[in-house]
Amino acid sequence: MRDNVAAVKTKGVFDQLLEHPLVQKGLEYLLEDADATLEEQIELTKIPAPSFMEEERGRVYKTKLELLGLADIQEDRHGNVFGTRYGNGKGPRIFVCAHLDTVFPNGTDIVVRQEDGKVYAPGISDDGRGLAAVLTLVRAFNETNIQTEGDIIFGATVGEEGLGDLRGVKGLFKDRNDIDGFISIEPGHPERITYLGTGSHRFHITYKGSGGHSFGDFGIPSPIHALGRAISKIGDIKTPAEPKTTFNVGTITGGTSVNTIAEEASMMLDMRSNSSEELMRLEERVMNILHTAAEEENNRWNSDKTAIEVTIKQVGDRPAGTQDPQSEIVETTVAAAASLGLNPELSQAFSTDSNVPISLGIPAVTLGGGGSDSGGFHTLEEYFDPTDAHLGPQNIFLTILGLVGVRDLTAPLLTKK
């Protein structure tokens, strides 16, 4: 905690909240609504939503927000859908969301099955759980009619996964400057609190040459060989363990036959770090390697007319972000979990929608939507165990109340700009 005074103040807020009849009613409702939340989670999961193709799921989600009576419901120009529950205007405004998209390509057969107490389906946890958690939270506020000091925007973003590159949340914060805090809901146990963002830079790299016959044209540079040189050199890079910094060549393509010198060869490269500075250092080294590999392949054959050229296209840029573990939003989240008898744990950095606000200096955390277990992420065997799943929404419910404040009861723990 920032200091003993702040710790006592924060704990006192949650002591007051837990004693309030309407807060107790909200917590009880979230427990009672757990089965309905799981059914809605399954319903949403069945709607295909690959990155860049979230329209149908977004339309259904927007309708659900409308039926729940939120104000100013909209789909912004990026595809994010959200509505607002207004407070009295004296507190901070926070955005609470999950992401609409999944990693699974269009045409994936989304079959839901239940086995040994678990629910299996592609995307059932990531982020079917988060989407359902947002909706049960809105219902809990409707059920209790708790009046808050600050505004709460509930919704869903697009483009969180893969080459979606956090496009929804990037667009959100490009368009708005009135958000004081941000909560992203992802699969996972409510005890895990993500408050750091792992940055990533992704590139599509292509080596091009004239190509030719493997025997008749032997002696001209090969794009595939240049690609191999680059991959070998990248593989030899040593990165720091702290801050964790990584690289990976995820895919390679090129060539037409065993007896053809390829005209081009490509790879997809992912670089990540918990430090923006280390990520840029790694990128600089890799860029030098990519050009050196082309030069070495050309020099190997002393060929000017058929020289290899390299084209580098950035396809992903996720900002890294850090914030003080003693910041208002982190302390509030920890205290909320502790008030429920959980053992909150500050996790290592991950790449989530929270990366963007954190990188902009806006307080943000990513919280688990509940469930005793989930796994198989990004595979057809993804699963969700709904045991005690209500604890996720309960934890987020209390966190929200602590941050925005409750009228005539508690002052907001999050600072309004």
Task: Explain this structure.
- The protein is an alpha+beta fold and 417 residues long.
- Helix content is 36%, strand content 23%.
- The protein has eleven helices and 18 strands.
- The protein has helices at residues 4-19, 21-32, 34-45, 55-67, 128-144, 167-175, 223-235, 276-301, 328-339, 355-359, 391-404; strands spanning 71-75, 81-85, 94-99, 113-115, 118-120, 152-157, 181-186, 192-194, 199-208, 212-213, 245-254, 260-261, 264-273, 309-318, 345-346, 364-368, 373-375, 383-385.
- The strands form four sheets. It has an eight-stranded mixed β-sheet with strand order 1-2-6-3-7-16-8-15. Strands 4-5-18-17 form a four-stranded antiparallel β-sheet, with no helix packed on it. Strands 11-13-9-14 form a four-stranded antiparallel β-sheet, covered by helices on one side.
- A hairpin with a 2-residue loop joins strand 4 and strand 5 (118-120).
- It is elongated and about 85 Å long.
- The chain starts with a helix and ends in a 13-residue tail after the last helix.
- The model has no long low-confidence stretch (mean pLDDT 96).
Order of helices and strands: HHHHEEEEEHEHEEEEHEEEHEHEHEEEH
How are the strands of the biggest sheet laid out side by side?
A: 1-2-6-3-7-16-8-15
Biggest pleated-sheet summary: 8 strands, mixed
Class from secondary-structure proportions: alpha+beta
Euclidean distance between termini CA atoms: 22 Å
Spatial shape:
elongated
Q: Averaged pLDDT, please?
A: 96
User: Residue ranges: pLDDT <50 for 5 or more in a row?
Assistant: none
Query: How many DSSP helices?
Result: 11
* Helix content range: 25-40%
Radius of gyration over C-alpha positions, nearest whole angstrom: 24 Å
